[in-house]
């Protein structure tokens, strides 16, 4: 059986005549993703999504203005257009994370500053621990969703490198995943520190690859949000064909 990896764009080469320096333009944002699960002790984030019409565009800067009283977050995003380039004509999806810092408990509304129709509500809960994270997470550097279209089975693939420890080593204890909201796949690669045979198995190569089947299939367009070490996260755009 053949397993096919998800691709987010199809390409058609076509040269464009151009001018000189990159030109700042508004980023074509069509959707906002917000992973559920942040509390008032987390560095919350929203993820904006759009599509570039060619390879002449690159992601620019983002900014979030937070109104604590109304609990509204206005996001502005720019892109850089490079007219002095030979471009590939393509519809290329992109995402960009926007850190909005530590928010108070409550329900918030994130919206694009130049397009009020692109919005997303999300909740920030009360912390259950004084630690930055509820768990110790593995240092995941790459993640993707693998789909076997012959069987319909989906698997989460995680890759990374464990940190060097003077005593013991880090291993992945379990990986939890859930869809919240329905277009966001949240992945929690929970790690632990051990001192035993697992450390000998790591040897001089602390890199890891981890695969776990997905019990609830994901479909359509969305976001994979993976929590990682030191309160960071890894975000990947998903496009699961029907």
Please give a structural write-up.
The chain starts with a strand and ends with a strand. It is built from 1 helix and 17 strands. It has 2 domains: 103 residues, no CATH class; 101 residues. By secondary structure, it is mainly β.
Chain-wise SSE layout:
Elements: E1 4-5, E2 11-13, E3 23-26, E4 29-33, E5 44-54, E6 57-67, E7 72-81, E8 88-101, E9 106-112, E10 115-124, E11 140-148, E12 153-161, E13 169-179, E14 184-194, H1 197-202, E15 207-213, E16 220-227, E17 233-240
Parallel strand pairs: 7-9, 14-16
Antiparallel strand pairs: 1-11, 2-8, 3-7, 4-5, 5-8, 6-7, 9-10, 11-12, 12-15, 13-14, 16-17
Based on DSSP secondary structure assignment, what is the total number of beta strands? 17
Structure annotation, total helices: 1
DSSP strand content: over 45%
Number of individual domains: 2
Residues in helix, % = under 10%
Mean pLDDT metric? 88
**Radius of gyration (Å):** 20 Å
Order of helices and strands: EEEEEEEEEEEEEEHEEE
Give the CA-CA distance, first to last residue: 18 Å
The main pleated sheet reads as: 5 strands, mixed
State the low-pLDDT regions, or none: 1-19
- Morphology call: globular
Give the structure's gist in a few sentences:
With about 240 residues, the chain is mainly β. It is built from 1 helix and 17 strands.
Task: List key phrases describing it.
242 residues, mainly beta, 2 domains, 5-stranded mixed sheet, 4-stranded antiparallel sheet, 17 strands, 2% helix, disordered N terminus
């Amino acid at each position: 059986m053949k397993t096919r990896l998800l691709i987010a764009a199809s390409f058609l080469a076509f040269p464009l005549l151009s001018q000189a320096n990159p030109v700042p333009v508004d980023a074509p944002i069509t959707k906002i993703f917000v992973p559920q699960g942040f509390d008032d002790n987390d560095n919350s984030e929203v993820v904006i999504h759009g599509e570039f019409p060619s390879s002449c565009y690159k992601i620019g800067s983002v900014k979030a203005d937070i109104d604590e009283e109304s609990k509204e977050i206005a996001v502005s995003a720019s892109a850089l257009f490079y007219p002095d380039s030979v471009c590939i004509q393509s519809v290329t999806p992109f995402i960009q994370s926007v850190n909005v810092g530590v928010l108070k408990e409550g329900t918030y509304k994130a919206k694009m500053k130049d397009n009020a129709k692109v919005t997303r509500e999300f909740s920030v809960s009360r912390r259950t621990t004084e630690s930055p994270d509820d768990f110790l997470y593995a240092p995941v550097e790459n993640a993707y969703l693998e789909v076997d279209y012959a069987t319909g089975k989906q698997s989460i693939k995680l890759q990374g490198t464990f940190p060097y420890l003077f005593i013991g080593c880090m291993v992945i204890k379990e990986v939890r995943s859930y869809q919240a909201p329905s277009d966001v796949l949240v992945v929690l690669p929970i790690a632990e520190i051990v001192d035993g045979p697992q450390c000998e198995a790591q040897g001089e190569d602390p890199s890891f690859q981890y695969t776990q089947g997905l019990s609830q299939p994901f479909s359509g367009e969305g976001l994979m949000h993976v929590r990682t070490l030191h309160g960071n996260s890894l975000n990947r755009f998903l496009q699961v064909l029907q």
